[in-house]
Write a structure and sequence with these properties.
With 131 residues, this protein is an all-alpha fold. The protein is built from 4 helices and no strands. It has a domain of 69 residues.
Length: 131
């Protein structure tokens, strides 16, 4: 009964040793000895698969970090003290209704403004004085 498992173990050990020796010799020569085209095709497929797996792992880790951040922020918002309710904003007075220095300056400017005829006359006088 122990003969069959022992022989399987011995055959597997011998095959593994032979495979390792072949791979070692191929690495030294930088050239494949057996099934070069098939092994090259398999290598390309495995490289593509590893790239896809790396991208998926990256997306999953970023998503996990985002979810953890959102949970932490929600917890912080729920624990944080709530601000007091703000009073409703009263109707602000318009510029014309206020009685301050700026409004009085504006009123004075509109009261003493020149008419268009006066502006033309003043402009002509200034031009004549220059020339």
């Amino acid at each position: 009964m122990l003969l069959l498992p022992g022989s399987i173990l011995a055959a597997a050990t011998v095959l593994l040793t032979v495979a390792l020796l072949i791979v070692r010799s191929e690495q030294k020569r930088d050239n494949r000895l057996f099934f070069a085209t098939i092994r090259g095709w398999i290598d390309r497929r495995l490289d593509n698969l590893s790239t896809v797996v790396r991208r998926v792992v990256h997306v999953v880790t970023l998503s996990f970090a985002y979810i953890v951040h959102q949970c932490r922020a929600a917890l912080a918002r729920s624990i944080a003290p709530r601000p007091r309710k703000q009073r409703p904003v009263r109707d602000r007075l318009t510029f014309e209704k206020t009685d301050n220095h700026l409004s009085s300056m504006h009123d004075h400017k509109t009261d003493t403004a020149l008419t268009t005829a006066q502006k033309k006359k003043l402009r002509n006088q200034k031009l004549e004085e220059r020339f």
